Every structure is written in structure tokens, then in C-alpha cells.
Amino acid sequence: MELDTATRLINALARNQNRFSPILGFPLTTKNARLLDISVHNKELQKYTDHEAYVSTLDHVNFIWLGGYGEERNIYAQSLAFSQTNRCIHLGVDITLKANTPIYTPLLGRVHSFQNNNQPFDYGPTIILEHDLDENVHFYTLYGHLNSISLNNLTIGQTFEPGELLAYIGDKSENGGWSPHLHFQIISDMDNMKGDYPGVASKIDAPMMLHKCPDPQFILGFPEKPIIY
Questions:
Q1: Is beta strand 33-35 parallel, antiparallel or unpaired with respect to 64-67?
Q2: 137 φ/ψ angles, rounded to the nearest 5 degrees
């Protein structure tokens, strides 16, 4: 029985898990990174007026905070774009970083598309790369909440080598209105979309969408065991 596109991608990512270049320029480990939980199940988060107030209390001097793949979140209720479609399940990983932090390409890729998704609580400046992995495995990576300079001089089809500087994190004034962070997502099929792709799914669509968008930890290397849907 022939495997579907997403399953073939998951298998290829697992086989190559230790071969990707670090997107921050250095590996993420238990010594410098911690899991970020802004899900509806985090009772500590519920003590704060909003998730940004909670995140601001974390130790950002010694650790990089990242997480969110498959999380159910209520932070999207502030945007009609999410609330009207009941989207609350996060499909990527958020990495909290200072504005202007550089982001590097994890593997050989070409620019599939890019655009500034500049509606409130959207991605802001966004880059999508396309990649080939192993034999006949084609997939995409999405980088959201960048600064606008990151889109300057980009061209469709432009090649980026592993470890090459790709973009910079944007501040709140240009990244869709969020505290500075990178939204990183793996996508098995772009469904003919360009410059944008859903980063949040409804509970009904979540099983399908999480399967189509494998756990970014395959590439990030943290934590060691990705979640597979």
C-alpha cells in the first residue's frame, strides 16, 4: 500500500533528523532551551491577564522558550480571523526571540513564495521555502512574524544553502502585533497557496492538519522525541 505524502515526509524527516542545520545558528539543547506552554491546560498561565504577561515572567536570559505544536490555545479569541472559524490548535512551533534575531536555513531550499500578511494577529512578513529530501520527498517550511527587511530582494526560486542567513525576527509593530517570536512550521502540501498557510486549525480539522504539518521538532532537534499524528 502506497504511503500518503505526509507519511512519506514524516518518515524522511525521521531518517534525517540529525542532519539539519540549526535555524538559530546553534543547537537547541536542554542546557539552553525550555518548552513553552501557553495552552488552555497551563494553570499558571491562567493567573495572568494575557499570555504575553505570562511569557514575560520566564527566564529569557538563560533559556530560549519554544513549543506549541498541537497545543489548544485560547489566545486566538482576540482575532475574528481565528474565532469565527473556531481555530485554536497550533500547527507549528513558536520560538520566543528578540526582534532582529537572525534565522538561518535548516537545509537546502528554494523560495517558494513570500508576502507580508499584515492583518492584525496574522503572520506579518512571511517566507516559505520548498525542499527536497531523500528520494521524491518534497515539502515546505514556513517562517512567520519576520521583519519587513527580510522580504527585500527576495526572488521566487532563489536558493538558500544550509546554515545561510534567511531572515530576521520582526517586532510587534510589523510582525502581526505579537511579541517577537518565530513561527516555524513544516508543510507537506501547500494546497496551491502562496505566501501564506494556516498556522492554526479547528478541533475538527486538527487531526488532518497536524498530519499534513509534521512536528517541527524533527528539524529543530528539541525536544528529542517529536509528536507524530
A1: parallel
A2: -110, 110
